[in-house]
Amino acid sequence: MRKDLVKNVPENVPENIPENMIENVREKSPYIHCITNYVTVNDCANILLACGASPIMADDVNEVEDITSICNALVINTGTLNERTISSMIKAGQKANALKHPIILDPVGAGASKLRTETVERLLREIKFDVIRGNASEIKCISKGVASTKGVDADQADYITEDNIASTVAAAKALSERTGAIIAITGAIDIVADASRAYVIRNGNTMMSRITGTGCMLTAVIGAMCAANLENLLEATATGVSMMGICGEIALQKLQETDGGTASFRIHLIDHMSKINTATMNKFMKIELV
Amino acid sequence: MRKDLVKNVPENVPENIPENMIENVREKSPYIHCITNYVTVNDCANILLACGASPIMADDVNEVEDITSICNALVINTGTLNERTISSMIKAGQKANALKHPIILDPVGAGASKLRTETVERLLREIKFDVIRGNASEIKCISKGVASTKGVDADQADYITEDNIASTVAAAKALSERTGAIIAITGAIDIVADASRAYVIRNGNTMMSRITGTGCMLTAVIGAMCAANLENLLEATATGVSMMGICGEIALQKLQETDGGTASFRIHLIDHMSKINTATMNKFMKIELV
Amino acid sequence: MRKDLVKNVPENVPENIPENMIENVREKSPYIHCITNYVTVNDCANILLACGASPIMADDVNEVEDITSICNALVINTGTLNERTISSMIKAGQKANALKHPIILDPVGAGASKLRTETVERLLREIKFDVIRGNASEIKCISKGVASTKGVDADQADYITEDNIASTVAAAKALSERTGAIIAITGAIDIVADASRAYVIRNGNTMMSRITGTGCMLTAVIGAMCAANLENLLEATATGVSMMGICGEIALQKLQETDGGTASFRIHLIDHMSKINTATMNKFMKIELV
């Protein structure tokens, strides 16, 4: 067990989270195939490189099988989807399933339009996902078929708070049971659950919602973490969520020192992803197994 | 009247410009549906977040009505347009018209190709716009059917100068009369006019033309300003134009202090949009009603 | 000859490289039509503006001929290609050929999928390119029809090293002979060759591969350099490659002073492209004619 072996592991990191998950990404440089939206695609590519992975963006139906075959994980993001890319998502997903690559779904805007809701439902029918990461409204939409999303943001009524953690964890576990995917619900408090266990994470800050792409970037990073830590997908996902939050915390501190605004915050966030390591993680992780 | 009520309003801000237009954006967080180009879409999303609004980018014909329905304004930008997105623009525009949402048009490159010129003409026939913002050549193309655009930049022959302000104001008023839209012509000097009144704005600097997306970002910001200030669309537009110019002025000052280049300028520009308020506006606005 | 005329030319710059190639870009402001991928398109537009050119991104088959006609060079990049844009590339390329505009090909991911390999082959059959710039694996794929690309990065087995420079130069010259295009192979060491001459360039650093878009940006910059220096395409290309490397070197120095990460590096890189001039080039160029 970790605590027995490593003297400097702080009390706040649960012992079943392995060390060196980020170092594994840097060492293995996994290739991550992303079929994603054109709003945040550059940020996703850059944060994947920052954490040590190699991004490949490709969405034509005639090449997605080839591309997925040379990669180690697939990330599907439904922002700015369209008829053409939906077919590509299905085809890439089925190929990645056949190859047993981890597949991560970011159901951006599920609930905001009939097209998005139905596409996410179709993706869940035709592809077996390893992780689904969304905000509270997107996950609720998948979970209950209720469309409460305010666009691509979570509806305030759905926010995770100290008061509804228990019920949200229960809902996440139930959804994981039904889909077979790890469920990551992110917001002020984050929950990462499989059917039997759940991590509650309290890293990050509200500044992260004042730039576009934090969620998309996190999903991409989870793809990298899973590709490099295949034996521990739940811990890889939870650690990825915490890591992104920690980068946000360090970025905010840097921002306050330099008197910058939201654009500088984005730069600092990616900067710190390119520098983070297990030592920093151990220092800042706020994560508990519930 | 403003000057009667508020002691610290400087002489340079016309009294018919209401206070707190930017604070209204931050308070109401309007959702802005953007059908825009893939070159500057990330900048548009980030500057909308910086000024307090929430961006939603969606361009598939099967979801644009749903998305526009949950938003407060629609921004249509013709950069990198294609067959697929043109239909989406029409459909979204007609839905937004039915819902009486403000609709802003950025006719990027009108005059640079037959496709762009004809698409802009079609958009103007099938959608009632509230604001049209372009450079001098794009607006001239709409106004006179003359295609003098040098690509996506204004032709030097069309630049607004101290010598042609009067005639440009007259042309803007005439185009507003014909289209029913507020006309915003931006360049070294900016003009924002409806059929009867015009503001001349002298904020900003040439550094703003050394990065891509300043125009696109401004159009998005005008969408946010209009959505949050429905009673004063002319003033919301003029204030948005001035505000963007002021952010450029502060960004340039910051740049000179730090010895940066064009990429840093873009970061500072968005940074300052995330911090600007009415007090700063009152200090720097160079705007007159003509 | 240059060394006879100009006293301060350092020994390290070959005499057949003209001075002021970058100043020519800033003076002529050439319009560069880019049909490129949506991952790095914003960086390409911004670096073109930074070096003094004007970018126009347009990929609809119904406007590419119009757009190319008002431009001075065409850049085709096969990242994120799809059925729709392939037709546009062919049409734009043939028009640019007819107009005798320089055309630059960036065969992103050639070898990574059948679609990319076949599309690059088709582009080479139907368009006469002036410059082809890729990493070692992409160029090898074109040269030998061998698909060894690891996604969009070069396969380590293909890296240019001190040991294989001679054979790589020979292969580049042979490919140039066959295609009629200048061949630019970039990596730790860069080679720029036509059928009879080759430059070996040793500027740049590994940090440049830790952000997305360095290659795409370089290809765009080569388009600008060629458009403004039509009489010296080989030297324009070699100088462009060296210039990008030098910006990377200055950016890294700046980064170390400020303790930044990969996102800051990207900002510094573009910043320094907006400031570079022949004097700086002369100081830092590491280039030899072999």
Q: Quaternary status of these chains?
A: homotrimer
| Binned strand content of chain A | 5-15%
**What form of chain A results from the Cα inertia axes?**
globular
Please name the fourth-level CATH homologous superfamily of chain A. Answer: Ribokinase
As for the CATH topology of chain A, it is: UDP-N-acetylmuramoyl-L-alanine:D-glutamate ligase
Largest sheet of chain A: 9 strands, mixed
Which regions of chain A contain 5 or more consecutive residues with pLDDT less than 50? 1-9
Amino-to-carboxy terminus distance of chain A? 19 Å
Number of helices in the DSSP assignment of chain A: 12
Q: Which strand order spans the largest sheet of chain A, edge to edge or round the barrel?
A: 2-1-3-4-5-6-7-8-9
Task: Give a structural overview.
- The structure is a homotrimer of 290-residue chains.
- Helix content of chain A is 49%, strand content 13%.
- Chain A is an alpha/beta fold and 290 residues long.
- The first copy, chain A, has a single domain (19-289), classed as UDP-N-acetylmuramoyl-L-alanine:D-glutamate ligase.
- Chain A has a nine-stranded mixed beta sheet, with helices on both faces.
- The radius of gyration of chain A is 18 Å and the shape is globular.
- Mean pLDDT of chain A is 93; it is low at 1-9.
- The A-C interface holds A 31, 38, 41-42, 45-46, 49-50, 54-60, 62-63, 66-67, 70-71, 84, 266-275 and C 37-40, 42-43, 79-83, 109, 112-116, 150-153, 210-213, 260-264, 266-267.
